[in-house]
Amino acid sequence: MPLPTQTPSDIPLADPDPTQTITPTPTPTPVSIDVSQIRLIEGMDVFTQPNISSGHVWGEFDTPPWNINITGRNFPCYVGLSSEEQDASSIIEVTVGDIDIKPSPISSEPYMWNSCRDRSKRMSQFDISLEIPALDFGEHEITVSVGNKIAREIFVNSAIPVIPETFKTYDLTDAIVLGNTAPSADHVMLGISPIRSIAGRELEIRLRGLSHLPQTTRACVSLVGPDGKNAPIASDSGAEFREQVLGVIMSPDESRIASWIHPGVGNRPGKWSIYIDLYHSRYSDSIFRNMLNFGANRGAADPNYQGSVLIQFQLEDLQLVGVESVQIGLPLTKYHREESSVFFSDDVPSAAAFDSIARLELAAVQIEEILGEVIGSIPNIYMVGDIQSGDRLSQAVLGRNWTPEESLGKRGGFYKGGGSPKGIYVLVPSARSVLNRTIVHEYIHHVNHELSQSNPNLPSWLNEGTAQYYGYQLNYDGEDELEIKRALLESMERSHLAALSGDLPSLKSIEDEWVGDPLHYSESDMVVRFMIETFGPSSPFDTVRQFEKADSTIEEALLSTTGLTYRQFETGFKGWIRDWSGRTLELDIHGLEKGIKKTHNCSPIKALYKEQ
Length: 612
What we know:
Strand content: 15-25%
CATH class of the largest domain: Mainly Beta
Distance between the termini: 116 Å
CATH architecture of the largest domain: Sandwich
Radius of gyration: 36 Å
């Protein structure tokens, strides 16, 4: 018969042997409970939170990788396991952010393991040395885990970021000292990107190691070309500053890095020089800028002045294949593409010419998509680097100087639709955003000319308005978005304020007497924006097409496309522009400006410039 079932309490226990130590059978532990607790070192408080402390052993000028020492306490220290199990349970894992950190070559252990070597302590403790890879400047979280315990700590990387490998670097201690004052430039590096810098294209300049707070070292940096002339400095809106403003202030951020992007569109090939005037100052950027621009720039007499140095570098010319030489008032280089050619004078870099015809071809594609049709062939483009070259070219093709006497401002470009040579003529500015806008602007004149050949006398406000509008609109996105939007907001506000004050010219007066006044351009642009917003995106070009019909007038063209008489149209426009708000555009600009340091400008110490 079956034996009776006994519960654990019914089972008799043998008398204990006083000579033996009883080892109780461990109770099986549910998965949810920390199984490591039954094998912790004797006397360790299992509720004590693990913690870590780190010691930095690298300086602000040391380059990565860096070493860091970590001491850990109160982590699980397993005993009673097999060697294999103990190894697997006691390995220390360290991460910085999402980077797994491995033991440093100088560590005494072959791997990171909480070895439980000192059982006399009431807590486990380990000391490890780690090799930290390159990290961004600022705060980082370091995480240490052993077994089922995790501890975290925030540490600050104060090492100055290295200049990336895409830059060619120069040590300022090796620079040419200007004047009698040698500045303290220990650990200060200059970087220029790209390494193989091309004339006519963008340059990024960085200074690493300038002092930050409490006393900041600011640099007034200027570029001097092979001809000994300063490279023009462009404002944030792309406009060129007055002649005396030839430098840019480079102020370090908290990581002691200062940077500046130079458009470089008109920079010619050859040996270039970077002049760096160094100042120590406790002033804000705005006060410091005013000091340098408005009379306090006294060079060595300024108590904040530390000295000036010079670094020289080379700009290479872009090599174009299949070019030929021609003469149109002055020697020009012709570079032919599949659909059109670019002609450029000796003072225009090859890269600027190449990039400009590429932008022109893109504009043709963009307008074809808008109109739904191909607008003839792409015109040739003629480019000059300064007004003297422009006068020689303009005299040859128009019989007058580049900028007409009646014009109120320097002419950036023009379109020649009749006679020979037809095409777009451009004076290369200092900012790429302005150059791209000018190319599109003049191309739209070509489009209008093709759309209204039988009646070519378009009203100036319509011809210039469509050119202005698309000059901004087709360059609205991309690398130059911020500069384009700043310039656009300034233009739109000009017309809006004139309308509020009653100083906005009538459309008829603009039509009868176009003088290239900035207000005329601004108002014409706003008329086209009014048309697009009120009557649809095709309304400006629809009006041009209507005007093309034989004997059509602007009154008839507007009536056909808008349903309004000329008077009604202008009345509606003036009410619209008075109510216009640039708030949305302002918010766009503020969003783009976040994290971007505004360019501040200065006057370099020109007295120190000399042949080196």
